[in-house]
Amino acid sequence: MRWPRQAMSLLFVLTLLTGPPAVLLSLVGSPLRGWPTAAQAREWVQNPLTEQTLTAALTIAAWLVWLLLAYTVTIRVLTRLRATVSWLRRMPLPTPLQATASGIAGAAVFGVASNAIATPPSPPTQPVAAGSLDDAGSPTPPNVVLHDGGVSVSGGWVSREVAEQVSAAAALVWLRRRRAYRPRPPDQTSREDPDLVPLPATVAAVQAALADTPTPPTEADTTSAGTSLLGMPTAGRAFPRAGVGLTGSGARAAARGLLVTNLLAGQRHPQVTVVVTRTVLARLLGPAADTLGRRLPGLAVVDTIGEASRFFPGHPAGRDLDGRDHARRHTGETTDAGRAVPVLIIDEAAAGANADSVASLGIDAATVAVLGTWPAGQTWHVDSTGHTTHPDAGGPAGPRMCVLTQDATTDLLTVVAHTDPSPTGPDASRPFREPALPVRSPQWHATGQDHRAQSGDDNRRLHLRVLGEPTLVLDNQPLVIRRTAAIQVLVFLAAHPDGADTRQLTDAIWPGLPRRSLTGRLYTTLSDLRATIRSAAGVNIIDHSDDRYRLDPTCVTVDLWRFHQAVHDATTAVTRDTTTWKAVINAYPDELAARRTWPWLDPIRETARRHVIDAHAALASATPDARQALEWLQAGIRIDPYNADLHTRAINALIALGDHDAADHIRDGYARRLAAAGIHPNETALTTAAITGQPAIPSR
């Protein structure tokens, strides 16, 4: 416990402050007895080294030392008080709903019987990521946090609903990458697959913020900016029917937020959800406008208002010579009253030159946003944080809007473009903002003396399991790790046997937060982790040298290292046989850090999964027995139930064996699984047909 040590420290300081003055006053007396007389001064000059003068000098020196000590203590106390006051000012107060919940929880705690037995909590199934109270015992930093019903990131602010859609879109990106992967012979230990590039930093920051606040939205969330196919900027209040103008320092940022909001909301709807003029899109997105304009599903880029009107149902310009609705031909949907219509984003010049046309679109229930003043409707002044006011009335005119910078907008739109149901080329799944240098997936460099799996006489007591639920085992017993961030550190260092520096660790564990505020948090996490392991096992498994942290292979074994060693043996063997491929499969009990949603995990996790898929496909191809080959394919499907190539091979194998009913069962089940995940069946049909040359999965 810390309080006894703190009490002893306080007692020692008080003794130093009060003891010396008491001794000096009792032995020597008061130091202020008046100035010396002229006779005393002449006597001191003639005979300076007397017993009286030496005593006075020593007394003065003692008082000076005490004054220095008192000054130091005072400065430290004032500094602590200032830090405490600053922290109290930043500490968020509980909402009424949270206060009610806390009261109920407190009543439940005091109502428990006094003889209840406390049991240790089970490991959490969901991680508490960036800024958890578990990490440092302090409030969550405000840079990436659920704030005012939304998530604040370095590139702006988005509502919680938009943040959840970003997270869902990011997960869908990785599902599509898994679906499209085609197994290949395991001929190399490292992978350079272009679709293993991590998602942009803004996406990772949003994912981490949501992982930090897993609770459902509160009442405050219902009044913040949400999403709608009708272009509503909030969940509770819509844009005015006649449209709204956006002015102020945050006008363009709010228009970008409106663009992202509606494109995310329309992902699962095969229709145009945003119509924007080419001039406005270039103004909002900058150099990325041309590329994104061609790749974003649900976005229609037009040159004139007349061209834009054809995307709105019921408008005369939207009908062809036969009287059929042009928008219906584009979307395949009717123009019933409940049907969503796009959001039109234009500038002030286009709105002024086409005022009647734009006003008529508003009558048809379209949502019109004008960059500038809008005489035909309301005009909102938007500040840089997204808060809106009426420039004339001065009062609140509307709710808070999502605001984003160009870079943050491009990052978030990347996950929307990744889910384009109609890729046009082999590189259609690659992100738009490619890194300047080739990005390699996490590499494995085996060194025989450090990382090779040792024999049965291995006397190391600590074993780190990261394939499955992350667990540090000491003498076959799990070791309790208190901090979630400490578990992340262990898994990250296991996935990077060459080590990681401070920047890499902080960027991975707390994405989106300023690095200067995280160094202390990382040191606290590492210090607590080292102390826990040292007190239990008497060793330090984390080595720190040259500003790089590494797991010490002489103190701990790691199952991921054994797996990569098996991959290395299989890919470098002079003679290929089934034994080496089976060793890869046997060394893979589960996916990396199962059920954890840390944003940095996906590329590394997918790399390991692809090695195992390659091994299953290689065994199926090398097996002369058709049924044995089918069993290997089915085992591979259990590893990745979303991979189209494995399903296609299994379907073809069943057809070759004459079991058409089983082939149809796999085909239909796979189509339903992808549809439930948000991947349209027609995508599946196109992908599978491209592999097999036959319609393995029908479009329904």
Automatic annotation (TrEMBL):
Residues 121-140, 313-335 are annotated as: Disordered. This is Bacterial transcriptional activator domain-containing protein. It comes from Micromonospora profundi. One of its GO terms (molecular function) is DNA binding. The keyword Transmembrane helix applies. It comes from the Bacteria. The chain crosses the membrane at residues 57-78, 99-118. InterPro entries: AfsR-DnrI-RedD_regulator, BTAD, TPR-like_helical_dom_sf, WH-like_DNA-bd_sf. Keywords: Membrane, Transcription, Transcription regulation, Transmembrane, Transmembrane helix. Residues 558-691 form the Bacterial transcriptional activator domain. GO terms for biological process: regulation of DNA-templated transcription. Residues 317-333 have a biased composition (Basic and acidic residues). Gene3D superfamilies: Tetratricopeptide repeat domain, Winged helix-like DNA-binding domain superfamily/Winged helix DNA-binding domain. The keyword Membrane applies.
